């Protein structure tokens, strides 16, 4: 957004101020890109090393192709059979679906695991209801709610065995679904309970010859909305202990490592969705971290910010997962699988304390500012424009107007401070002239600074007055930058010609309008004392920098920035016509004529 520059610094001072502002803008932008890449790296290069695979992995489609019930019994019974115990297994593969207003989950009795987890209120990139299961990753590494053990043969056997379900067909929540299996030695019982929310409850117990087996309930990794580089880069492992949360980027997740509790909650997430376990017994919970690499060269969408790897070679991305168990051998936990929507997350509490899932939302370096920006945006949306077409876009516009109205008094103060500085500029020049014969290292130079500071103080000039709008608007700008890529509410939110406010403008209309408006901001904002050539350079450089920043980034940021520029132009045009603005122009004209050697007519001050 537009800033008021200090128009009274001597010889090129305004140019230095502009250069500093541009340097700060570019530095913070690329610093945020580095911070984001450091904590959520982009897709791995094809030559990157693979992390340790999940113990036993998961069956490939060929491996999972319906073995006979006898074959399943034999695979599990390889661990040692106890003759005389009854075997429990199904004769054929079957599916059972559980449904409420929010989701439709389809289970298969092969492994008693989830084939699809469709979220009814969210769409994928093709406009179809979003399947939260990353099918490609699941076929290779395992399906959600499968079992993870520290015996690879047992893990594979339990994932391919045919369980006996308590119900088949379709169930409407609230409901309960149990899967039982036994080969005569190893016995498994998996019970899932559902209500009207995104949270379900899992109760899993595995025994071998009557002794408990450490079997963890598993979300092997990935989410169905991951179809481009940015989505994979947002993968992370989320852990909360003793009321403090931690978000681990892929490079910090060592596949196969186990962490011991206590855990308030733990799981995995990407930018917009999460699968989180909330154990019934936090103190005895354990978490296995899962990290695999997947080649998505044939399936990734090559739009947006680009992807790692070449179009002809492999493109490997991190697939993070988590499995939760209990030291007792019996795992009882709630499971949240759904959007990282603030209103949903803040209503889900950990067992035994008040901590919610809200910290799953990570707004980055400017987190506190980004959080309250979004809460303000959400309030405007819900109470003013919820029924309007393109409501989130209009909410951004209204919020931008309100922010600029709040900043207006500071801009006026800055202009007043600049005028005071202009009035005493001749006296400041005279002081500097007296001391110019001294070198910069001469102690006499400190006396010059003392005199200038006293002159400013006697005339009510605040040397930092011109920085106030910048100190307010830059954090807001970069908080908006990080907030837009973090909130699921803006995912696929359209406005006029924009199909998704969290994605780049496909026609680049907003970036072009923003470049033009940024040029007009530079044109209308007073910058007396600046060399005309330098002023032209800044007038073109600043729009070029801001245009580059918004060309391939969220169109919501370009909308916020463009509206802010248009408001700044209107405000500046009005203020330039006030007595304050006229006096600034008159003083600036006198200085320009004096610098050019043109005689000036001295007139009294108003």
TrEMBL record:
GO molecular function: membrane insertase activity
Domain of life according to the entry: Bacteria
Compartments, record wording: Cell inner membrane; Cell membrane
GO annotations of cellular component type: plasma membrane
Domain Membrane insertase YidC N-terminal span(s) in chain numbering: 97-374
Matches recorded under InterPro entries: Membr_insert_YidC (IPR019998), Membr_insert_YidC_N (IPR028053), YidC/ALB3/OXA1/COX18 (IPR001708), YidC/Oxa/ALB_C (IPR028055), YidC_ALB_C (IPR047196), YidC_periplasmic_sf (IPR038221)
Subunit structure: Interacts with the Sec translocase complex via SecD. Specifically interacts with transmembrane segments of nascent integral membrane proteins during membrane integration.
Protein name: Membrane protein insertase YidC
Taxonomic lineage from the root: Bacteria, Pseudomonadati, Acidobacteriota, Terriglobia, Terriglobales
Gene name as annotated: yidC
